[in-house]
Write a structure and sequence with these properties.
alpha+beta; globular; Aminopeptidase; eight-stranded mixed β-sheet; 11 strands; three-stranded antiparallel β-sheet
Length: 235
C-alpha cells in the first residue's frame, strides 16, 4: 500500500490544504499566488500521463507547475520540462526527546511578506511567493527590524506537516538560527498531534546533515518536475 507521503501534493490538496487550491477528481493545484505545487490522484509512471492531461485541461494558467513523483516520469508533449530535481523526503523521529529552545521565534504576518520574499530570493530555500504565507505558521528571527532567518509550514498531508522555507541571511550564518527555527517547528507540529517532515535536494549536503543531526530520517527519494504548458501543442 502506498504511503500518503509518496504523493504529497495530492494528499495535501485533498486534506490539510484543500482550501488553498482547486481542480477535479484527477488533478488539483494550488492557487497560482500561493504555490506552484500540483497533485495528481495517480502520480505513478503508469498513471501520470492521464493525470497531467487532466492538469493541462483544468488549470487556468500556463505554470510553472511543480509535480512530485517517486517514479521517473515521461513528461507528455503538452508540457515543457523546465527542470528536474531529485530530493530526499525526511521525517522526524518522534521518539526523540526535544531540547528546549534558546531563542523564541516571532510569528510572521502579512506585513512581513516583502522581507520574507527578499530573504527567500537571496537564499533560495525553495519557492516563496506573495500568498505562500497562507500555508501558515511562519516564524522568524529579527535583528532589530530586519528579518534574518525564517521557517514555516507548507504542504499539510494530514497528519504530516511539511517544514519549509528554512533560511538564514548569509551575514547571520553560524549562529544556530536554522536549528532553533527547525526545533520550534517540530515542537509546534508535534504539540497538535502532527508529524513533521521536509524535503531537501539530494545534492544539498549542508542542510541535509543539519536535518539528520536533529533527528530527521530519510524516508524516500522523490523526483520534482518543474513544468510549463506548451501552448503550441493541443491537449
Amino acid at each position: 500500500m502506498a504511503h500518503i507521503l509518496d504523493n504529497p501534493g495530492w494528499s495535501a490538496l485533498t486534506t490539510g490544504n484543500r482550501h488553498l487550491g482547486e481542480g477535479n477528481d484527477e488533478a488539483k493545484y494550488f492557487f497560482k499566488d500561493v504555490a506552484a505545487f500540483v497533485g495528481l490522484k495517480d502520480n505513478s509512471a503508469a498513471g501520470a500521463a492521464q493525470g497531467l492531461k487532466a492538469l493541462y485541461e483544468v488549470t487556468l494558467h500556463d505554470g510553472p507547475f511543480i509535480f512530485i513523483s517517486p517514479d521517473k516520469i515521461a513528461i507528455p508533449e503538452q508540457f515543457k520540462l523546465l527542470r528536474e530535481l531529485a530530493c530526499y523526503q525526511m521525517v522526524f523521529d518522534t521518539n526523540l526527546v526535544l531540547p528546549e529552545l534558546t531563542i523564541t521565534p516571532i510569528e510572521l504576518k502579512v506585513k512581513d511578506v516583502p522581507q520574507m520574499m527578499e530573504l527567500t530570493s537571496l537564499t533560495n530555500p525553495g519557492p516563496f511567493i506573495k500568498r505562500t504565507i497562507e500555508f501558515g505558521h511562519y516564524y522568524g528571527i529579527f535583528d532589530g527590524e530586519k528579518l534574518v532567518a525564517m521557517a514555516g509550514q507548507r504542504m499539510h498531508s494530514v497528519p504530516y506537516a511539511e517544514i519549509s522555507a528554512v533560511c538564514t541571511h548569509p551575514d547571520y550564518l553560524g549562529r544556530g538560527y536554522a536549528r532553533q527555527l527547525l526545533l520550534h517547528q517540530v515542537r509546534r507540529i508535534m504539540a497538535v498531534g502532527g508529524l513533521p517532515y521536509l524535503h531537501v535536494r539530494d545534492d544539498n549536503e549542508r542542510p541535509y546533515k543539519i536535518y539528520e543531526s536533529m533527528g530527521f530520517v530519510t524516508r524516500a527519494s522523490l523526483n520534482f518536475y518543474v513544468l510549463m504548458k506548451d501552448q503550441s501543442v493541443l491537449a
